[in-house]
Design a protein that fits this description.
Layout (H helix, E strand, L loop, with lengths): L13 H7 L1 H8 L16 H10 L3 H4 L25
Length: 87
């Protein structure tokens, strides 16, 4: 079974992250990992950006527009919805 590990560098400039994440850079050089520069989504806050990464939607569509909004995603996303239901 293949697995994906997504590492998000929140609030760190791309050039700084690339210059200071030595082990991850080594994995990229050895073609054991990939590096992508993802353009930010407004508003420039953590929770809206995480929801954008999880759903592929802009904040105007997924509705998470501030860090204070705390709810499970109500849009299709990378996480199976049945894993998060109370049972």
């Amino acid at each position: 079974m293949s697995k994906v590990i997504l590492i998000l560098s929140d609030a760190l400039r791309y050039d700084v992250a690339k210059a200071n994440m030595g082990f991850l850079g080594h994995l990229v050089e050895m073609e054991l990992a990939s590096l992508y520069k993802v353009p930010g989504e407004l508003p420039s806050m953590s929770r809206p950006m995480y929801e954008t990464v999880h759903t592929g939607l802009p904040s105007s569509e997924h509705g998470i527009v501030a860090n204070s909004i705390r709810r499970l995603s109500n849009k299709p996303n990378i996480f199976p919805s049945d894993r998060w239901r109370a049972g």
